[in-house]
């Protein structure tokens, strides 16, 4: 059992036309045993400041579409400002896969994340190689999955690349971290298929990224 006062509270923003909520819900389920408690927003119209401020860290894995059935943009400049303030005041943001897509019209949010999605070739074998020299990747290992190999633009030259992804289409930044005010941001590009989320090596990387973003010791929770 994990003590209630040590529980990590995560607000997950998910679900768009190409990325069903069932994928992160199933992919994150085992992390509950590592001490994470999840709150969910699947419809962007249900955005809640109260949910935001209850969370230790936000996990954004939602393209800029209101829901799986409504492709209208959900992110507003006001919501982006709230997220930026949340991080600057010492909380964390972890962006996975779809969370990098569709936010080009919101430059302030793009600056917060440090980069964004450009395009991807057809799904293929993708190797994710954690880079040494950061707390998140300290005990992480390389793995290969069948996934969309995201091509990304890394806008922040000061961001630290913590993983690279490789496929027949070349090499890309697969993960990076940056500090914003008193808070922390991490982006990870793999994650289109459920099998990717459930791969043990990626589960470890996600878990450690969540704890780091929240300003906690990534080695503290039980290993996945």
Report the structural category.
alpha/beta
Strands of the largest sheet, in order across it? 2-1-3-4-11-10-9-6-7
Strand content: 25-35%
Question: Helix amount, in percent?
Answer: 10-25%
What would the average pLDDT be, to the nearest integer?
Answer: 95
Q: Oligomeric form of this entry?
A: single chain
Shape: globular
CA radius of gyration? 16 Å
User: What's the main sheet like?
Assistant: 9 strands, mixed
Distinct helical segment count: 6
End-to-end CA span: 14 Å
List unreliable stretches of 5+ residues.
Answer: none
H-E order: EHEHEHEHEEEEEEEHH
What is the count of β-strands? Answer: 11
What would your notes on this structure say?
There is one protein chain. The protein contains six helices and eleven strands. It is α/β, with parallel strands linked by helices and 224 residues long. It is globular, with a radius of gyration of 16 Å. It starts with 7 loop residues before the first strand and ends in an 11-residue tail after the last helix.
Summarize the structure.
With 224 residues, the chain is an alpha/beta fold.
List keywords for this structure.
224 residues, alpha/beta, 11 strands, globular
Question: How do the strands and helices of this protein lay out in sequence?
Answer:
Layout: E1 8-14, H1 22-28, E2 36-41, H2 49-54, E3 57-61, H3 77-88, E4 92-96, H4 107-113, E5 115-119, E6 124-130, E7 143-147, E8 151-154, E9 160-167, E10 170-180, E11 183-188, H5 194-197, H6 200-213
Parallel strand pairs: 1-2, 1-3, 3-4, 4-11
Antiparallel strand pairs: 5-8, 6-7, 6-9, 9-10, 10-11
């Amino acid at each position: 059992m994990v003590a209630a006062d040590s529980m990590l509270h995560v607000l997950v923003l998910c679900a768009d036309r190409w990325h069903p909520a069932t994928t992160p819900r199933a992919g994150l389920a085992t992390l509950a045993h590592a001490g994470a408690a999840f709150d969910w927003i699947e419809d962007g119209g249900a955005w809640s400041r109260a949910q935001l401020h209850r969370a230790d860290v936000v996990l954004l894995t939602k393209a800029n579409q209101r829901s799986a059935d409504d492709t209208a943009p959900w992110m507003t400049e006001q919501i982006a400002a709230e997220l930026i303030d949340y991080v600057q005041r010492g909380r964390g943001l972890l962006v996975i896969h779809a969370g990098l897509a569709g936010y080009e019209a919101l430059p302030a949010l793009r600056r917060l994340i440090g980069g964004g999605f450009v395009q991807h070739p057809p799904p293929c074998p993708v190797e994710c190689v954690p880079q040494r020299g950061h707390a998140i990747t300290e005990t992480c290992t390389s793995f290969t999955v069948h996934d969309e190999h995201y091509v990304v633009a890394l806008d922040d030259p000061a961001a630290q690349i913590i993983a690279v992804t490789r496929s027949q289409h070349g090499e890309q930044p697969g993960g990076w971290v940056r500090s914003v005010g008193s808070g922390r941001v991490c982006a990870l590009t793999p994650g289109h298929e459920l099998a990717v989320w459930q791969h043990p090596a990626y589960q470890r990387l996600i878990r450690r990224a969540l704890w780091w973003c929240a300003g906690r010791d990534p080695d503290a929770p039980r290993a996945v």
